[in-house]
Amino acid sequence: MSHSTGAVARALNALSNLCLLASSCSLVLLVVVFGWLVFGRYVLNVTPTWVEQLSLLLVGYITFVGSATVVHEDSHLGVTLFRDMLGSPGREIATALADFILAGFGLVMAFACIDLMQFGWSTKLPMLNVPESLRTLPAFLCGAFTFVFAGARGGRQILLLLSSSDTHENRSL
Amino acid sequence: MGLAILLGIFSGCLFLGVPVAFAMGIAAASAFFYEGFPLLITFQRTISGISVFSLLAIPFFVFAGEIMLHGGIAARLVRFASTLVGHARGGLASVNIFSSMLFGGISGSAVADISALGSLLIPVMKEKGYSGDYAVNVTVTSSIAGIVIPPSHNMIIFAVAAGGGISISKLFLAGVVPGILMCVCLAIAAYAVAIKRKYPAEPFPGWRAVVVAGAAAIPGLITAVIIVGGVLSGIFTVTESGAFGAIYALLLTVFAYRSLSWRAFVTAVTSAVRTTSMVMILIGFASAFAYLLALYQVPTLLTNLLVTISDNPIIILLMINVMLLMLGMIMDMAALILICTPIFLPIAREIGMDPIQFGIMMLVNLGLGLCTPPVGSCLFVGCAVGKVKIEQALKTIWPFYLALLMALLLVTYVPAISLTLPALFD
Amino acid sequence: ADWRGWNIHVEDYPVSHGMEQFMAEVSEKTEGRIAGKVYHAGVLGSQPDAIEQVRLGIINFGVFSLGPMGQAVPEANVVSLPFIFKSVDQMYRLMDGDAGAAIDAGLQKKGIVALGWYDAGARSFYNSRQPINTPADVEGLKVRVMNNDLFVGMIESLGGNATPMAFAEVYQSLKTGVVDGAENNPPSYESTNHYEVAKYYSISEHLIIPECLCMSKKTFDSLSEEDQAIVLAAGKASAELERQLWGEREKKSMETVLAGGTQVNQIADKAPFQAAMAPVYDKFLAENPDLTDLVNLIRNAD
Ligand code: NA
Ligand code: NA
């Protein structure tokens, strides 16, 4: 692997870890605020009114930002059985194609979420009084990161396929 | 035409190996595009699909399960089960099944169950002279019972997919007897195989050892009592119970057991985040997908089709089960719950089946799919943990499939198995 | 054209019949140039989503509560001010007149045209402790409210303990005492079986929030003037049908809960409750100064 692709891989790993850190913090925060709700409701007898809406917001960040990491780690639930039945290089091409489709969808998602964020700017989330766009932000991030992670993996797959095709053919024939 | 695009693109993406969640999103976006809708509606549906209050219980259940797994609660439960039921013939198999009932009852996740219990039990079973394929088969199939025994986040997914109006506490109650029934069927199968293969029995360690192991395990078991008891008594809502259970497990493992290191905590949190985001994004995109299924009136079309084939409820239920089993072979549980509930539930209602019973039937059925190839995450994890080849495990798994099928048939055709307990508590 | 209509209620509900009649009348009067289907039971998504989809013209019409619409349209929030209407009849009069026109203007700025105002009843307090006659009876009571600052403010101004909570969890919470009470209109109080676990229904009618038969402005603007007139007339006619059906439904629900042993009491003097709302109004007007005229128009009407 050349120097530059190593640097790209490190950068992608760092980005993915950053996503994981952010969503992990959201999860811990979720447990803490909900613990506060239970404590308030049953011990203090006063329900904090903002917890429900904040929790829903946090779940959005855990889901979408965490999902970007899972895209990078390539461990979303999927059916790889059919493409695994194809021989080489069909399997590699299908894998790269799947990644490119995923990346394209990520791009569409990111742009659509920008529209959605602009649209929801004047609408306020109840009880929190923040723009509804904050609920859309993690979905935008998910789209953008999915584009980056899946696109990079697809690209690398194609590069590998191209660079190995001649040596591979020589060896197998 | 729109429906053809929706289903065609979905299957095309699945074929190429695009993750199921995104395949649903891509298919939904394409169909919206074809219908001349703005694309952003796909993502609006996705975002509001996960902003559902009852779904908050999922991260809490998953987090509680991970803490129990990495904080030493699971290990204490296994030790307890082993002193209690280990002395029967093929006793370690019973230990395995009994542990799944206790632990799967808490984590609510079959895969977590297998990686936790499998890595504890499979090596011990091999050491005592059980063959690897048997150990894996017992572990994998018994973990399915954990899906039905409350708490179970798949029940929450079902309740949400059913469009609300289904009580989660009733679902929890309804799962108890079918879960135990599955364990009994599996224990019979495991016993029969153990006799045939002349597997050993453990010596009984004495009541003193049972009490000691029990005392160590009971504080951990209280996590399940909190979650299930909170929901059933109605003192807590499902979400509150989940949060309280997670916090209890955390405090217990940090301060009482002192068995949760910082590193183990980080592992628990990050793996809970991964599971949560995988499940939740599936729920989100499935909600965009389901919107289109409703728009194209797929449930009505399919009901009409099935009713023209037969108007006998027994046959219709059999057809639904066969379809679910086939789908379960190639897809994972949460996705299928989300896709199939809006389609099949109206049919079940039409023929007079209680939605609660239908939910339990569906969970048992799709659970079976988790341990069938070619897509069976539980089977794969089990084989990986047990270091056994999938082909090897498959050769001897049929008695266990038979046991689960038996349980599925009983749950399908005997409503009382699911519905007696919820009715008692009403 | 093939219209899509959004409705959260099941097929047999006053709102649903109103919408069906609207669609049928439009089809008939336009001699089939416009057809459409009403999707009941919320199959086309949640209310906030559907509101956005109407704004985008994806869904052509729908019936929405003005409560949640307030998150996007400030003018709509005015009717969520507690005790702003004195009675349901007064609400009809004002909504069919200047107040309705002002709210419609606000909706139009966000891409929605109001075709008619449906009745969704008046919400009153119910609880498991005691009948409510004065604000002091609310003091210390844990009351479930919808997720909205105004409703939280209302309960807090009365000295109660406001508890926003998902609707599905209310029954269980009333039963176990997690909350002491909630507030809703008689049909909801009856159909959710809340009357089994909260026996005291006190007619405060603190919220009379109408629902709006709304049309996407995109759809409306695409119509000829002649068709627009047909649509507006059909909207008004469907509102009349819905109000009549709603009245019947409310009466039936009241009979059911009374037969079930509920104690219903009329609050004789609402003035102290209204006076207690001053901080809620002050805060609202400080945040929305340009709505002062509209608030006063309704508040000062008799
Ligand atoms: Na479980
Ligand atoms: Na399978």
TrEMBL record, chain A:
Q: Which family does it belong to?
A: Belongs to the TRAP transporter small permease family.
Q: Which organism is it from?
A: Roseibium limicola
Q: Does the keyword Transport apply?
A: yes
What does the record note on quaternary structure? The complex comprises the extracytoplasmic solute receptor protein and the two transmembrane proteins.
Query: Which protein are we looking at?
Result: TRAP transporter small permease protein
Q: What is its main location?
A: membrane
Ranges for domain Tripartite ATP-independent periplasmic transporters DctQ component? 30-151
Cell compartments where the protein resides: Cell inner membrane
What GO molecular functions are on record for this protein? transmembrane transporter activity
Automatic annotation (TrEMBL), chain B:
Asked if the Swiss-Prot or TrEMBL record annotates the protein with the keyword Transmembrane helix, the reply is: yes
Q: Which UniProt keywords apply?
A: Cell inner membrane, Cell membrane, Membrane, Transmembrane, Transmembrane helix, Transport
Q: Where is the TRAP C4-dicarboxylate transport system permease DctM subunit domain?
A: 7-417
Q: Does the keyword Cell inner membrane apply?
A: yes
Where does this one sit in the cell?
Cell inner membrane
Any stretches that span the bilayer, and where are they?
47-65, 101-122, 171-195, 207-236, 242-260, 272-294, 314-345, 366-388, 400-425
Kindly give the InterPro entries that the UniProt entry links to this protein: DctM (IPR010656), TRAP_DctM (IPR004681)
- Self-association or partners: how does it assemble? The complex comprises the extracytoplasmic solute receptor protein and the two transmembrane proteins.
State what this protein does: Part of the tripartite ATP-independent periplasmic (TRAP) transport system.
Q: What is this protein called?
A: TRAP transporter large permease protein
The taxonomy runs: Bacteria, Pseudomonadati, Pseudomonadota, Alphaproteobacteria, Hyphomicrobiales
